[in-house]
Design brief:
Layout: H1 2-6, H2 18-21, E1 31-35, H3 38-47, E2 51-58, E3 61-70, E4 73-79, H4 84-97, E5 101-110, H5 113-116, E6 120-129, E7 142-144, H6 147-159, E8 164-172, H7 180-188, E9 191-195, H8 198-208, E10 212-221, H9 240-256
Parallel strand pairs: 1-4, 1-5, 5-10, 6-8, 8-9
Antiparallel strand pairs: 2-3, 3-4, 5-9, 6-7
Length: 258
């Protein structure tokens, strides 16, 4: 496996590119918000004036891209599929449609309960324990978030008095292979939480030169003697309005950036 990761291709153009599958859409929102919870998306578009402006075609079905208005801004909203490869494919296609800035939020498993309890998590870096990112940037154990993007999230959380913590995320493909030894090791490396997309999303954003702001909310707890599912089945639905509002506020702040 190490030899595969060692063979990073420096070619910017692939044999199949997003532009071969998706045509730019005139007037497509410059900034898009994406999350992984269908319930959060459905709740918002049902109760707000949102219209479908595009669709992402997948074997799992069509994923609509909505346009919403906030502070006189046109903002895209779409569902990301779970898992690094599927998530990145969606990001690639939305960028090909015309997106220039991305906001991504979702749930995670907590690895450090004392640090992250009742707080939003803003990733500052992520351990690359997934395969997708290695096709976008050269091998390294970690990938770092852009400071500007981290500071935008911080500013918005502080403005709205929402508790948050900065820290490292463990991104893994193997949700059912988060063994006790690996959890212990990642905690010792300083990881606050575990997810399946953070590092890969950072990698494609770097490759495409697209700013991305990420934030995570805790679902289940792995920092205990036994796994605590908590509200993992809810996937953030109870706080849906708050998460979407923060996404919209971050979008407005990003649009004010040069």
């Amino acid at each position: 496996m190490a030899t595969i990761f060692d063979e990073f291709s420096q070619e910017a153009t692939a044999f199949i590119n997003p532009s071969d599958c998706v045509m730019p859409l005139p007037g497509f929102p410059e900034i898009c918000i994406t999350t992984f919870s269908q319930n959060i998306i459905t709740e918002f578009v049902t109760n707000h004036n949102a219209q479908v402006i595009a669709e992402l075609c997948t074997a799992n079905g069509m994923l609509p891209v909505y346009e919403v208005r906030y502070q006189n801004l046109s903002i895209g909203l779409f569902l990301s599929r779970v898992g690094a490869p599927a998530c990145v494919a969606g990001l690639e296609e939305v960028i090909a449609l015309g997106a220039k800035k991305i906001i991504q939020f979702g749930s995670c498993g907590i690895l450090n309960q004392s640090a992250a309890e009742n707080k939003m998590i803003i990733p500052t870096s992520a351990i690359r324990d997934e395969g997708t990112s290695y096709h976008y940037i050269e091998k390294s154990e970690e990938i770092t978030a852009e400071t500007t993007s981290v500071n935008i999230a911080r500013h918005c959380f502080e403005k709205h008095r929402i508790p948050y913590v900065l820290g490292k995320i463990w991104t893994t493909d193997g949700i059912y292979r988060e063994t006790p030894d690996l959890i212990k090791q990642r905690k010792e490396q300083g990881c606050l939480a575990v997810d399946m997309e953070c590092s890969a999303s950072l990698a494609v954003a770097k490759f495409r030169n697209i700013p991305i702001v990420q934030f995570l909310f805790g679902a289940d707890n792995l920092d205990a003697a036994a796994w605590e599912p908590r509200d993992i089945a809810d996937y953030g639905f109870r706080e849906a309005n708050r998460y979407i509002l923060m996404g919209l506020e971050i979008a407005a702040e990003m649009m004010r950036q040069p």
